[in-house]
Design goal:
Blueprint lengths: L1 H16 L1 E4 L3 E7 L2 E6 L2 E4 L5 E7 L3 E11 L5 E12 L2 H6 L4 H17 L4 H6 L1 H16 L4 E12 L2 H43 L3 H12 L14 H17 L1
Length: 253
């Protein structure tokens, strides 16, 4: 009787020891005597202890940081670049069977591809079209890692570090461009002001005594300081305007 009790106990321990829980975001790759025999979906699963082996693979998006790397652009400018790779496993069995460490392999391939792509573009393109360059890197990495069951969702270039001398040169160039734009804007404003003054002068000149009245209006707005003496050089037109006004008043009287 005790023999059957021990046998049942061993069977229960053996059965419970083979239970495995696969989370919703995982899949389990099963090897039986070292040979791939299937992939388990999420849930409570059971394997034969000592005969089968299960390796869980995370299907969520994984983020891998690529540390700062030195690269030389097409126009021979050394730059320091660091980036981030976003990828996920779409075929768990390939990620286990076809590459030893898919996360490390993907990051290393992204690093090599980044150097190659950056080496084929000029500095201006790298700075102004960063997203396009990152997309080109993603396409290369995604194509090469697809046999491993990897889907590269995005590659983001976080920082592009330039040599100190290049930074100073670019800052000086930017300052020159700002000064150039300021001079152009000021000149355009002066041209428009001159055009408006010309139009105003033409309108006032077309009206008899218009310029004289405009001058008198300007004089009226002045509030001289008692401690100062303001001297006006009145043109002949102003005097003629005053004379015309005086004669008009006399006629009315």
């Amino acid at each position: 009787m005790w023999f059957w009790g021990i046998l049942i106990f061993i069977f229960v321990i053996f059965g419970l020891g083979g239970l495995r829980v696969i989370n919703q975001y995982e899949k389990g790759v099963i090897l039986t005597f070292g040979k791939y025999t299937g992939t388990y979906n999420p849930g409570l699963r059971w394997i034969l202890i000592g005969i089968q082996k299960m390796m869980k693979v995370d299907l969520r998006i994984t983020t891998v940081d690529i540390p700062r790397q030195e690269a030389i652009t097409k126009d021979n400018v050394p730059v320091g670049i660091n980036a981030v790779v976003y990828f996920k496993v779409v075929r768990a069995e390939d990620a286990v069977l076809k590459v030893e460490n898919y996360s490390y392999a993907t990051s290393q391939y992204a690093l090599a591809a980044m150097r190659d792509i950056v080496g084929g573009v000029e500095l201006d393109t790298l700075l102004t079209e960063r997203e396009r360059v990152a997309t080109d890197i993603k396409k290369v990495v995604d194509t090469e890692t697809d046999p491993w069951g990897i889907d590269v969702t995005a590659i983001k270039m976080q920082d592009i570090e330039l040599p100190a001398g290049m930074k100073r040169a670019m800052a000086a160039q930017a300052e020159t461009e700002r000064e150039k734009r300021a001079i152009i804007i000021k000149a355009e404003g002066e041209v428009r002001a001159a055009e408006n003054l010309q139009k105003a002068a033409e309108i006032l000149g077309a009206v008899p005594g218009g310029l004289s009245l405009r001058t008198l209006g300007t004089i009226e707005k002045l509030q001289p300081d008692p401690s100062k003496t303001v001297i006006f050089a009145l043109p002949v037109e102003v005097l003629e305007g005053l004379k015309s006004l005086s004669e008009a008043r006399k006629k009315k009287e």
